[in-house]
Amino acid sequence: MSDQPLRRPATPMLQQIAARPTMRGTLLGVPLGVKVIGALFGLAFLALNAAIAYVVIDGRLDGKWYDFRDLGNAVESLRGWTEDEGFHPGVIYGISALLGGLGILSLVGVWLIIGPWVERRVIAKFQIRVGPNRNGPFGLFQSIADALKLMQKEVIIPRGADRFLYFVPPVMIFVPALLGWGPIPWAEKMAYIDLDVGILFTIAISSLGVLAVFLAGWASNNHYSLLGAMRTVAMMVSYEIPISLSLLSVAMLTSSMRLSQIVAWQGHYHVWIIAILPFAAFAFLFASTAEINRTPNDIGEAESEIVAGFYTEYSGMKGGLFMAVELGNAILVGALMSTFFLGGYTMFGLEEWIPGYIILLTKILAVYFLFVWLRATLPRFRLDQLMGFAWKFLIPISMVQVFVVAIEASVFARVTAPALFTLGAFAIVNLSITILLVKLWADRLGYAVIQHPTKPVLTQAVGGLRAAERIRKPA
Amino acid sequence: MDSPGIIVAFWLLSGITVLSALLVFVARNLLHALAFLVLSFLGMAGLFMTLSADFIAVAQILIYAGSISVLMVFAVMLTPLASRNNGNSLYVIPALMGGAGIAGLVGAVAMETDWAEHSGEALKAADFPSTVPVIGDLLLGRYVLAFEIASVLLFIALLGAILLVHERPEDERSAGQQGEAQ
Amino acid sequence: MPASTEPYVLNIGPQHPSTHGVFRLRVVMDGEVIRDLDMIVGYLHRSMEKLAEERTYTQNIPFTDRADYLAAMSSNLGLALAAERLTGVVPTERSQYLRVIFAELQRIASHAMANGTLISDAGAWQTPLLYMFREREKILDLFEMTCGARLTTNYMRIGGVSFDPPPEFWPALAELVAELPERIDEYFELLTDNEIFLGRTRNVGIISPEDAINGSLTGPALRGSGVPWDLRKAEPYCVYDRFDFDIPVGTVGDVYDRFMVRMEETKQSVRILQQAMAEIPSGPHKNDVALALRPEPGEIYSRVESPRGEIGFYLVSDGTPAPYRFHLRAPSMINLSLLREMGVGSSLPNAVVTLGSLDIVVGEIDR
Questions:
Q1: ipTM attached to this prediction
Q2: Helix (H, G, I), strand (E, B) or coil at B73
Q3: Which domains does chain C have, with CATH numbers?
Q4: What is the per-residue pLDDT across A31-54, written as a single tens digit (0 to 9) for each?
Q5: Which of B31, B62, B132 comes nearest A207 by C-beta?
């Protein structure tokens, strides 16, 4: 009896996963008619590409309203047409403002549906899981189901909460998340508000979220919320400085604060600023993760410590709005990072062929993937470690970087050598200065890379305190 | 001020600004008052926008709506009796008098200024591409002394803040001794 | 002028992500600094020890599953050994080896859970936890193959074990043992050189060897402080004296040392498993023992090394089939008692990580 298997044989989880239908298996089961139609669509797509290539090479597209590479052309022709028809200029600006606003809104809206799905699926891949795959094709409707669930839930107002201030922050925090998209150029003429002070605008907008976070934490009448709000405010206020300093170096190098000009500068010299200012790029990325509360800097809503931080008490869609803002901010930071440091909508001449907004979107998703990767891999910093890192490390080195860039910018304006040569020299100089500074400053502060952390001692001895002392101080 | 959009925006924004400024001292709760104050700051920024002063508008958002408001929040939080309501203060009469004085001053300056010189055709004739380079030139050229004095002042304030909260080793020791004595 | 703020009370738990069950910490905080800390237990109290007085020794074995539900095998073993010492029943040779194999598998599974949740407490978004669940899942599969249950195994019996493993068990075990060292190296790679993890765990929640002994700590918490005390070596039960393995001890006594001690113990468990698999004799897996044993009146305290430390059973017999007194020395409960000393004066994140490193199971604390 005992030699027989007692219960059903075990079915390990991984085997179950392996038994799921694969992509290849699904393809084999497709009927012939569908295959033929699919092949025809594929051919049509290829033909369309060939046609696009032909008109692009021929230069027939340049500046026409149907130039798909830059939707700004369409708006411009619309504006021209309305002017010819004799409409009032207010109407024209109104129409283009509506179109652009609609574009931004739909981008953020669509992302709020796809984003959670992307994040969950990617993290599931990191964690040897499957992720949501039940609702709709590949589980794509999971976010819609979640949103519906959140909307149905009761909004609970905690006792003793400040009712007025409790309802303001979820709305208030959404404003910067949408406004931040304004100055980002999606193609040469495709920026919603191409402000002359784009960098300042970005920083100003990001500083607006602080108050909403604080009010949310204060109005909830909960210690967890207040702790989370205090942490977040402290962190946002501190990390605004490295962000400002690194963007200041970018502005000095490109001698412009207009985002479209920064991208155009990178496109003109065929160089990404991350190559010239690696430390500024790092500082911006790190500080941004702190600003938008993502791992490893998500201490403002550290789940294992203060539950959900400043929005612990928010239930239903009120809490959902905070999560949505976080998700939207993640790609907003991706867009800013791409614009400032990764060439924006340019891609070494590829923007002649592929629409700039698609290139930018790809870069945004790449940065977002980096965020998801970090979230899936790293533990969280502690508040004092993060504040120390900002004030003792990022800010001093960023300041030195600003001085170096100031010198380089004036050199760049004066030398007549080829730009590529000068910029290459800058890149090498900056990289070596950064490495040297980081090394020296870390030594000065007493930080050291722990090469071989203390490993447990293996022993055969058994005993109490005396044995412990013998192990600690051998002979 | 020719386009209807600008006119609509002006009246809308000034309505928001004035209304929220009124609510700042009507509101009983200090933090409510603060929220309205931020709203009025934002309205001001919008008004600067309608005047094509984008730099000042953004600076208004960055400094007043973004930073000063956080400072005030902390001030409210760190004040004992933070939940104390607005009003019933000894300073109501002096504050009203001071406010009336400032309003009168600003009004007098507004009446005295020759606005035609700085608007309309004169502004168009000035022809500068954007405000930032002009402001930068002025700050580092004509008004460099004021600029430097402001920066030194801020630096001293920063140092003072650090000195205030810096715990020197001997302080710690004395604090420890006090703790032991207790 | 040191700035000070008004202290306030923060209730961590009973529903909180990092209390590992229904356990409550009442913390008095001053800003981010902990000024006082009370542990409030009892939310999961099921009156286990009193109920045990109404049941026979064999009927009590399932209770031990529910006490330490993450290491059911080890608690089962503890009770079976105590009852055998009380009654004088001798287990079979094969069952001794089976007990060692399952106890060590349980140790690996439990340490995987403990370290995984510790890293989650440190803020990793559950990736290391799920990686470690990969091995735990396979171990639970082995349990399921053998006794049909994954968590509450009820496997050990007085005089042996309840079932002999089925034939497909041994190749599955061999495969697992073969791949475990590789997996453990993977965790070392991911975690032990991770600057953030080191920054969060090194020199946090330090227990000195003196404090550890005075606080009656056992298990990885004690060994992390550098005291080489492991019941498998100190008082070898089953057939642990026939195997060659080392005791890992920490050098500083911080959270990181406790984490690393668990990692090293996993490696040592693999060594024991390899030897036990090679040496296991054939024969019956269980002696026939009466269900209602009537031991002579007397008392016994018997202890084994569970993944959380010394799990002890104090049994008093009055000659009837049921114990007159049944007491469980719960290692989690006693390890937890030092949390106040470690937590007061540190910050909230440190306290959470320290609590995670103590690896408590609330079922065992409240019983």
A1: 0.82
A2: helix
A3: 45-331 (1.10.645.10)
A4: 788 888 989 999 998 888 787 777
A5: B62
